[in-house]
User: Fold homocysteine desulfhydrase from Anaerobutyricum hallii.
Amino acid sequence: MKFNTKLLHGKAGRNTLDGATLPGISQVSAFYYDSAEHLEKVFGNKAPGFAYTRIGNPTVAAFEQRINEVEGGTGAVACASGMAAITVALLNVLSAGDEIIAGSGLFGGTIDLFKDLEAFGITTHFIPHITVEDIKPVLNQNIKAVFGEIIGNPGLDVVNIKEVSDFLHENGVPFIVDATTATPYLINALAAGADIVIHSSSKYINGSGNAISGIIVDGGKFQWDKERYPAMKEYSKYGKFAYTARLRNDVWRNMGGCLAPMNAYLNILGLETLGIRMKALCNNALTLAKTLEKLPGITVNYPGLESSPYKTLVDEQFGGLGGAILTIRAGSRENAFKLINSLKYALIATNIGDLRTLVIHPASTIYLHSTQEEQEHAGVYDDTIRISVGLEDVEDLIEDFTQAVKNI
Ligand SMILES: *Cc1c(COP(=O)(O)O)cnc(C)c1O
Assistant:
């Protein structure tokens, strides 16, 4: 099955008991059983079933299974948000004294999270780009994970997953990727070599901007050495399911960032149209970027443009689609604000992956808590505008952005 067919006819979508085309919404907290013995078995993983929604829920499980099938993982665990997913994905394997390497062009919330982890003895080395060249000089025995966004938001640098993961595996380090902006439509990150894939499914997977959520998918191939990862010691008996087993039985369930059943259902609806939406969104983004690039007074950053250093990688890795986000620089903060305020269709909002085109001035919003140096490393300048391109007719977007640019 190809991508869109699998979304609609994959095995994971065919497991409803009553033949319903979509799972029901199990909007409950708890599940009862006919005897104390039965509930004991469910609690001890000796009988199938659900006990309490924080630990498992049929609608959430249906969402997890669908994503897991699309990504080709050994298990997927859904979370209340993308940030909850990133947090537990890391805490699942890290201990005090461990170090992480991360790209500088990351989502602002993730950069803030890495600072929070310092209180728990986990330190992060930020490097300009997730490349073998940049990783090599900072690699040491304490580095227990490398974290990168496949297409940085909003830096828009693109990671060569195969090259980086090959190098990391030679050094016994797992590659954890945030695939939010690339989505499984542009790249199967596990097949390309990544070990753990995380999505803020609030964005393109949900697709309509109607629910916050996150998901972690394990490829099951990384060998968690018991000495280097003491947290994984007890779970190594689960083999390729070890990482997911620890999440489910330990960190994820105990930190409590579970996904609500209703939101899981909304994500399943979104997931089914991910392929057609991404294709249309990426085509709109490329057409808009090409048009804006010709206008005087602004510069455009989009990985799919001929002028981008990532164009070859976009062609090789993503089949030519460069994602649906672009940034423009308007010359000054004043110009950036004026441009934003002149737009008729694009909504001024802090989100990506909506059906509607959204714009934001990152320096004064998402990166408010970052230093100027951190902002610039993330590709955020005082005159930067991020555009999350939507599904409007591209002629209307071109007309709208062109008049706004002329206005400055
Ligand atoms: C939005 C986003 C997150 C955080 O996800 P939430 O669902 O908002 O918690 C993480 N990474 C990237 C790349 C994002 O765009």
About this structure: The chain has 16 helices and twelve strands. The chain has a mean pLDDT of 96.
